[in-house]
């Protein structure tokens, strides 16, 4: 299974190679030229030394020009090599980022329920960057090192094969060292990335809740959590440092050992006159290309493995089945009038927890339907099921059509939603009310008037172009809610889903917004989740939910006279309000 997974990831990564094959071919070309230039230097040193020993002035001046040529060619190809690798890496990062973000937007709510949003942030940053490095410099360095070593070894054989064979033993030795350290580095790098992802999740949680942190004096606790998280990162960082130090020290040991060996034996062969001084210099220079690629390979191998682990995390998300295959188109205006909405034996569980239990409910025509019930009864869940955000057992029908037979565009065009928390986006008021730029300024004017947000918008600097800050942080709770109501009005759908929509408003605003909502509700079907039962006494139908089931149904007076759960909830609330007044 794990191997299958690895194969799949390699195939995914290979897609990039196919997509950018011209760039990869160019990089292969610059790599080969780079290798030849690496080997040209020892060849140059050998010749210049031999010429100097022979005092051959004519050939010396020729080799000076060869040296200049090698120098500039090296500069030129080095520049292109690094530039092209960075270009590939940037392309891969950009491509992955865009695909991952788009895919995240299409993932079902079940995915977001199970995974912290910080994990997607971390995949979009750390993991995507690591994949970019892998597909650029790391990939080529891993190929280049052994290639250089093989070519250098062949060259060594041509200079003096017995010495080459003795020194060539260094290659497998460095490979073993690399394998040992590389394995340790891989394990630690994967843990390091996981720790970093956890730290991002924590930072995101904390920054989103700064006001609460302040109110509850949670600074110390949160700081301790972050310190703890950062210390875990530090531990793995330090361990990477230790492994890297061990690797470098051992590499250096083997490197120096090989030089001493080559120098000692080489000098002996020079005395025996089976090798020239120039050849000995070239030999030692070439040894570099055998020792360092293998020792460097260990670090690169570790880096590659941790990048592959990042790729695994990214592709895991990319392979999650999306809710819809492509972005739904901009929702059409839906003028359909609602004749009926029906829940038929609907059951639903979040993971293992059964939340809606064989629920049956039929609503006919337009009007206001209030959903009431204790916390956790399943009211908000019904809103989500109505929009088909989760799979469930049973059937939900709108105008006698099962909602699962509708396209997402068709289904969602039925609803305007005002959530409990207004859920505004960083940007201007205009961008929040009219995100798809569908409305004319006249429409906007009407909507602002209708939602009693006109005065509020006019009082803000820049009016509709006022920047509301992160999630509307520059607006009061009531102001945010009025903008959210205006956004719902702008959609003008036939079913309104109001989740405690007026809970954040002051009395005056609530009156204004209620007037707007009353206007809007005409000819529509409105579901209201209300905890303050005083706000829904006029509802056409009150549905009392308890533990995922409909336990009572009727209007306010009927339900009070039944003296059931609604009666208890209503009187408990009023008793509580009376107590508050008496105090
Ligand atoms: N995303 C989720 N994952 C797992 N369980 C959830 C999720 N959302 C809600 N629940 C659980 O489902 C149950 C019903 O939640 P729901 O939000 O529908 O209740 P509610 O009636 O709207 O409650 P409240 O009045 O407190 O807003 C609760 O027990 C809740 O813990």
Automatic annotation (TrEMBL):
Membrane topology label: Multi-pass membrane protein
Localization of this protein: Cell membrane
UniProt KW Membrane keyword: yes
InterPro entries: AAA+_ATPase (IPR003593), ABC1_TM_dom (IPR011527), ABC1_TM_sf (IPR036640), ABC_transporter-like_ATP-bd (IPR003439), ABC_transporter-like_CS (IPR017871), P-loop_NTPase (IPR027417), Type_1_exporter (IPR039421)
SMART domains xref list: AAA
Start and end residues of each ABC transmembrane type-1 domain: 25-306
All residue ranges annotated as the ABC transporter domain in the record: 341-572
Record has Transport as a keyword: yes
Record field: transmembrane: 21-42, 62-84, 138-157, 163-182, 249-270
PROSITE patterns: ABC_TM1F, ABC_TRANSPORTER_1, ABC_TRANSPORTER_2
Entry keywords, A to Z: ATP-binding, Membrane, Nucleotide-binding, Transmembrane, Transmembrane helix, Transport
Any single Gene Ontology cellular-component annotation: cytoplasm
Single annotated GO MF: ATP hydrolysis activity
Domain of life: Bacteria
SUPFAM superfamilies linked: ABC transporter transmembrane region, P-loop containing nucleoside triphosphate hydrolases
Chief place where the protein resides: membrane
PANTHER family according to UniProt: ATP-BINDING CASSETTE SUB-FAMILY B MEMBER 10, MITOCHONDRIAL, ATP-DEPENDENT PERMEASE MDL1, MITOCHONDRIAL
Protein's recorded name: ABC transporter ATP-binding protein
Protein species of origin: Natronobacillus azotifigens
């Amino acid at each position: 299974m794990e191997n299958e997974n690895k194969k799949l990831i390699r195939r995914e990564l290979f897609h990039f190679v196919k997509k950018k094959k011209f760039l990869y071919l160019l990089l292969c070309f610059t790599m080969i030229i780079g290798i030849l230039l690496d080997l040209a230097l020892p060849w140059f040193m050998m010749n210049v030394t031999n010429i100097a020993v022979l005092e051959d002035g004519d050939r010396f001046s020729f080799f000076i020009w060869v040296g200049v040529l090698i120098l500039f060619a090296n500069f030129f190809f080095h520049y292109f090599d690094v530039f092209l690798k960075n270009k590939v890496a940037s392309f891969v990062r950009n491509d992955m980022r865009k695909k991952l973000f788009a895919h995240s937007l299409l993932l079902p709510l079940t995915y977001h329920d199970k995974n912290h949003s910080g994990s997607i942030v971390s995949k979009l940053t750390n993991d995507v960057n690591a994949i970019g490095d892998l597909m650029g410099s790391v990939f080529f360095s891993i190929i280049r090192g052994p290639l250089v070593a093989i070519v250098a070894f062949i060259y060594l054989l041509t200079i003096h094969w017995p010495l080459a064979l003795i020194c060539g033993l260094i290659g497998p030795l460095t490979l073993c060292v690399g394998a040992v350290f590389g394995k340790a580095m891989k394990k630690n790098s994967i843990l390091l990335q996981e720790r970093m992802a956890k730290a991002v999740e924590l930072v995101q949680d904390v920054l989103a809740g700064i006001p609460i942190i302040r109110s509850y004096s949670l600074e110390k606790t949160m700081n301790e959590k972050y310190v703890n998280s950062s210390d875990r990162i530090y531990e793995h960082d330090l361990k990477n440092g230790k492994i890297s130090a061990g690797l470098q020290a051992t590499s250096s040991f083997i490197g120096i050992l090989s030089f001493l060996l080559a120098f000692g034996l080489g000098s002996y062969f020079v005395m025996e006159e089976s090798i020239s001084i120039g050849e000995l210099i070239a030999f030692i220079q070439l040894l570099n290309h055998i020792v360092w690629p293998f020792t460097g390979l260990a670090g690169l191998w570790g880096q590659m493995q941790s990048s592959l682990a990042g790729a695994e995390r990214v592709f895991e998300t990319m392979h999650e089945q999306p809710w819809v295959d492509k972005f739904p188109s901009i929702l059409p205006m839906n003028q359909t009038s609602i004749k009926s909405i029906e829940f038929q034996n609907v059951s639903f569980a979040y993971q293992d927890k059964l939340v809606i239990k064989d629920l049956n409910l039929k609503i006919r025509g337009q009007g206001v339907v209030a959903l009431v019930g204790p916390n956790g009864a399943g009211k908000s869940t019904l809103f989500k099921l109505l929009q088909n955000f989760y799979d469930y057992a049973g059937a939900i029908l709108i105008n006698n059509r099962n909602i699962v037979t509708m396209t997402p565009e068709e289904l969602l065009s039925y609803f305007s939603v005002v959530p409990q928390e207004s859920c505004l986006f960083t940007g201007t008021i205009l961008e929040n009310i009219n995100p798809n730029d569908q409305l004319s300024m006249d429409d906007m004017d009407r909507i602002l008037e209708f939602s009693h947000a006109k005065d509020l918008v006019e009082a803000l600097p820049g009016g509709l172009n006022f920047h509301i800050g992160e999630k509307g942080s520059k607006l009061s709770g009531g102001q945010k809610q009025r903008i959210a109501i205006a956004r719902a009005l702008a959609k003008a759908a036939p079913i309104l889903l109001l989740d405690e929509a007026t809970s954040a408003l002051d009395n005056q605003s609530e009156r204004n917004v209620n007037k707007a909502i009353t206007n809007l509700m005409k000819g529509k079907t409105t579901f209201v989740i209300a905890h303050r039962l005083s706000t829904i006494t006029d509802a056409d139908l009150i549905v009392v939910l308890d533990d995922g089931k409909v336990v009572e149904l009727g209007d306010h007076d009927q339900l009070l006279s039944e003296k059931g759960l609604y009666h208890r909830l209503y009187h408990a609330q009023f008793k509580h309000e009376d107590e508050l007044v008496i105090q």
